[in-house]
Structures are given as structure tokens and as C-alpha cells.
Amino acid sequence: YEDPPGLVEKTDFLLREWINIYNSQHQGRDSTKAFSIFVHQMNVHGILKTDDLITRFFRLSTQLCVETVYRALLDKSNANMTLIRPKCYHTLDAFVRLVSLLVKHSGDANNTTTKIHLLNKVLGIVAGCLLQDHDTRTVDFQQMPYQRIFTMLFLELNAPEPILEAINLHVLTAYCHTFHILRPSKAAGFCYAWLELISHRVFIGRMLATTPQQKCWSLYAQLLVDLFRYLAPFLRNAELAKPVTMLYKGTLRVLLVLLHDFPEFLCDYYYGFCDVIPPNCIQMRNLILSAFPRTMRLPDPFIPNLKVDMLPEISYAPRINTNISLTISPAQFKKDLDSYLKARAPVTFLSELRSNLQISNEPGVRYNISLMNALVLYVGTQAIAYIRNKGLTPSMSTIAHSAHMDIFQNLTVDLDTEGRYLFFNAMANQLRYPNSHTHYFSCTFLYLFAEANTEVIQEQITRNPTYKFWQHQFVHCAPEIEKLFESVARSCF
Amino acid sequence: PLGAVPLQKEHQQQFQLMEAAYYHMPHPSDTERIRTYLPRNPCNTPSYYIQAPLFNSDTPEFYQRLGTETLFFVFYYMEGTKAQYLAAKALKKQSWRFHTKYMMWFQRHEEPKIINEEYEQGTYIYFDYEKWGQRKKEGFTFEYKYLE
Amino acid sequence: LGQDLTALGLNLNSPENLYPSFGGPWADHPCRPQDVDFHVPPEYLIN
User: Fold this and answer.
1) Measured between alpha carbons, how far is C34 from A98 in angstroms, rounded to an integer?
2) What whole-number distance in Å separates Cα of residue A12 and Cα of residue A391?
3) pLDDT at residue C1, rounded to an integer
4) In this complex, do B22 and A243 lie within 8 Å of one another by their Cβ atoms?
5) How sure is the predictor about A283, in pLDDT bands with cuts at 50, 70 and 90?
6) A22-42 tens-digit pLDDT
7) A152: which chain C residues are within 8 Å (Cβ-Cβ)?
8) How far apart are CA B31 and CA B50, in angstroms?
9) Which residue in A has a C-alpha nearest to residue B9's C-alpha?
10) Is residue C18 less than 8 Å (CB to CB) from chain B?
11) Contact B81 C23 (CB under 8 A)
12) What protein family is recorded (chain C) (predicted)?
């Protein structure tokens, strides 16, 4: 860094000055008055002379504040955390206040560019300091100072003021970029603070509720994908260690709030979420798949003779915010797929299908799950269009004997148990609130069951009694298995 | 059917860092503005105490059923929060008026002797937040423009 | 396996939105009114 001689001392001096001003009683709540005097002092000390010096000032200030917090937190003589923390807050909040005033007053009043430029600079600096600290201290890293800086700065920049309203979308975007940079897979030691930051009530409110035209939804979805990606390897194996259980519970809480308040958000981005959540993570996936638009009145699934075909919603396609065809690769495979769907050629397509999906021979990680998911949804949507073009609607008879069904039947028969599990999961991910995908894939599931030539396939699809499930041998293969099926069945029906 | 997948080296390192962080979980007050009197500091109480906020305890109806003294407590000790706002609303429902210059709540003690566009003069009860008690003030002139 | 979703401290039957008083991923209870910032008239800020 080679800071110019004396800059550290100068920064330290100025920062202390400001912290004293900010916390002095007679200032009361409004430190704006002192701010202009302080900026003059910064000028006198040459801090604002160049962009580089400003950058150094913020970096050094961040580090000085963080060091102060580390010293306080590690001060063994005073173990009372409820006394130590407020002291830390006074230091951190003062620094945040300075940053927010500088952002608000940089450039002239209605020039948003300089404000956003400065904000991005500061967020970048704090993130950089965090990552460096995280990599240096590793297991001794403390989340609190950084969480506090990000939270308080966000609250400051989201106060109901006209200047701030004008730059709010930029503030949210800058924050999302910063949180993406600091995602748990990059800073695992910051993961709890990170989850709390992205689920803070003011952050959720701004991202998902008040910003018009859902402009921030895709940004927020990206953050959730970051979280699921990080959790995936730990959730993949069912035994959860305490740290993972804590993060998992926290994630469920956030998902429940989203399910309750923003079900349309989960509906729109379900595909991307389910694509990165381990298939065996049934509870979390079901939370996302159970979301349905608030305007929809769901039919009671337990009505004995529910006529799904009569529901008007089953002809509407759900909104999907992922471009599925882009995720099918390599390009040659996509080309072959399209040509097979069009003309059932090349004939070798079906026999090569499994090798396109298989990436290794190691059990548990044999298949490219994303490709499997994309293939299933892509073929399914093509099938629905194909049936509609013929003026028909999906039903047990219209979905049969088509190139699409060839592919699904091939996958059912040709894949091993692991592959079939992933394939059926990819289909099960489409069974949601009444819509054309739910309808098509539920028909397809039942068709595959009826056409299945081995019981192992049937067992993996459904246990519904109307398919004489209880007469199959695998139900009676052992007394405890029989008992298990009976207790599960009793709880369902 | 997927079976377990051993964690890769990278994930083991991540787990180590996560585990260390697990022993420094964020504290509820970390994400709140500094509260002068009642910070968000949950403390463990016996399980037979009420653990969750009372039903509807964040609604105006709930606050209107609180005693006046309690409302004053909430107003002065929970400033800048929704609780202060709800307490102010409830006090107004009980005919208290907040005087922005004296920063005190006033209520008519009896029908004022003089009432005109700008003020009314009479005897008032006011709440002295420094001495923390209600007081009576004779002949007090209540200027409207200071009326919050 | 999995968590009891009804025991995570969220009132899933609430007709109101949950996020304005969401206490965070680690909290067993929602925020109390005295935890939630509110834009009150500046005269109310007496301390």
C-alpha cells in the first residue's frame, strides 16, 4: 500500500476528531452542522486533494475502526458483552455517519453520479478490508464490525430524504454487488452476518416491496442463489453439524418470510433456486415449490373427484426468469436435441442421451444436475407447445408417442437409480400451483408409471393407492418396510 | 439413492471458518440503531415467563388500552421507534396534546377561560418528563402554533 | 430430518406482512415495536 508518510497519523487524528464530534452530547442528533466544519479540516489536511488520497483515507479509517473493535472484543478484563458492544457501535456509527454525509453532499445536490461513485468506492474498500481480514485472521475473524458498518450505512442511506430517494436504486444495486462479492463461499467466516444483512427487514422491504416494477428482484434472487450454492455441499449429506443447522434454520426463516410476503417472487425464481439446492433437500425445495400467486385460489387437493382438467389455470404457462435453452450445453447437444424433437433424428440421440448427462462414475456425483434440470423443462415446454399447435391440450393420450415422450421414457429406462432419482426430481420441481407445466408433468409422471416395465421405476414415481400400490411386491418385501409405508400412507390420506 | 458425498477440501476449510463464526454469532443489537435506554438485548428468562410478544402488541388498539403512565414511559424511553409513535397516537386519543416547544404533553384540566384562533388559556395538566410526574398549571396559555 | 417450520417463531397465519417486523434469521421472535425504527416528528426526539 505504501501510504504517504504521515497519512496514517493524520487519518487517525481526523477520525478521532470526528468520532468525538459525533458522540458529543451538545451535537444531539444532527451532526450535519459539524460536518461542514470537519470537511474543511479534511481539506486543510489535504485528504480531499486526490481520488487516491480519499481512497486511502477510507481504507485506513475502516481498518482503524475495525482494529478498535477487535481490541474491545478481545479485552478479557471486561467480559460484559452488553457493555462492550455499544462502545463499538459509537465508533462504527460515527464513521458510518461521516461516510453517509460525504455521500449525500458529494458533488452538487442533484448530481447522482458522484454520490454513487463515492458509495461504490467505500463499499468496495470495506469489502476489500473484510476479505483481507478474513483471510488473515481466519478462525479469529470477527463479523460484527463489518456487519455494523454495512447495516448502519444502509439505514442512513435509506432515510426518507429526497436526495436519497433519487439514488436509492443505485444504492440497492451497489449493495447487492457488494454482498455478492462477500457471498459465503468467498467469506465463510462472515456467513451468519451476511445472511442477516440480506434478510434485514429494511433491506428486504426496499429490495422486494417498495422498489417499483420489481427492479431488484433478480438481484435479490442472485443473493439467494449464492446462499443455496454455499449450503449445498453441507446439506447434501443429511447429518447437519450445529453451525450448518444454525445457517439452515436461518435460511428457512428467511424463506418463510418470503413465502408469506412475496410468494410471487419465489414463483418467478423457483427454477434457479431448485437448480442449486441439493435434490435430497426436500424440505427447503418444498418451501419454494409451495409458493403460489396470492391472486390464485388453490383447489382443495383432497376433494375426492377433483377434475384438474377443468381448472382454467392449467392452460397458463408459469413465468420463468431463466433462459433455459441457454443452459443446455454443449451446443452440439442442443442442436441434436432440437433436431430430434423436430424429426426424431438422429436416431443415435436417444442412445447417447445418458452419456451426455453423465460426468463421472463416482456414486452420488455421476450426473450434471443443471443440465438434467434444463433438459427436462426444455423438453416439457416444447411438448406443451407441440400439443397446443395441434389444437389439443395435454392429457394421458395426447402426451404419448412423441419425440418428447421418447426422451422421457428413454431417461426412465436407461438411467440408473441415481440418475432416475435426479430425473424424477427435475420433473417433480415442476409440480406446483395449477399451471400448464404442473398439468403436463403430472400427466407425464403417471404415464411413465403406467408404462414402466419394472417395479423399481414405479416405486420411485408414486405410492398412490389408485395404482394398486399395495399389491406390488416391494411393499411387502420386509415387515418393517410394510409398517413404514402404512404409517406414511395413513398420515397422507 | 444419492448417498453421501464427502466434502471437498475447499468445503472443509469453509466449514472450519463457519464453525469459528458460529461461536461469535451476531447479536440482535448489532443491526439496530443505538437505543439510549432499551437496546435490543434479549436475555434469558424462566420459560414460564411470556417469551413471545403479546398478540397484537404492535397495534394502536393495544396501546390505547395501556395506562397513561405507561404511555409516557414508552414515549420518553423508546424514542424514534414505532412504539413511541403508537404511544403518541394513544395519548392523543386520551386528549393529550404534545407541545413542541416544551416537549411535554398537556391535557385540559378544565374548560379554558379564553379560546381563540391562536391560543386558549386555562388550567392544564402536563407531564413533566424531568421530574417524571403530572403537574397542574394554572392560567397557562396554550399556543396553537406550538400544537404538534 | 428437517425443521419444525411452526417452531421458528414466525406467525405464518398473520394477515399482515412479516418482513417489517422480521427479527432476523437468528431471532426466535419478531421485533417488538420498540425495536423498529419509525420516522417520528423530530420534536419527539427529546434525548
Assistant:
1) 26
2) 75
3) 62
4) yes
5) very high
6) 888 555 556 777 888 899 999
7) none
8) 24
9) A233
10) no
11) no
12) Belongs to the CNOT2/3/5 family.
